[in-house]
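Hey, I'm writing a tutorial for new members on how sequence and structure tokens pair up, and I'd like a real worked example in the thread rather than a made-up one. If someone can provide the structure for the chain below, I'll link this post from the tutorial.
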Amino acid sequence: MRLATSDGGGTRTSSSAITFSHPFCIGNDPRQLPPGVYVVHTDEHLFSQGDHNWSIRAEVVVEVRTGGTTAFRHVAGADLDRAIAEDAAASMLRHDLDPGRFTASG
């Protein structure tokens, strides 16, 4: 199988904002990050073969802003995906356990 990069330059960079509702860690890094909005930059390698086009996530960088400074943390995409899923699960669990969701009738 021969893979070729697409005519679009071979890479694509996108940026998105991700909101975490709970403190979180990414991967094996023990540093806990506070809830908030984080800008994530993703570089992807673009490939094509015949009529099929696809991309592979190559690099993920999270902007971490603290005390007026910004650090750029390179993370594994799978680790970021896991942190996002764990934050969503914690939000659902909190919602399910919220006693204010139910009201007494009568």
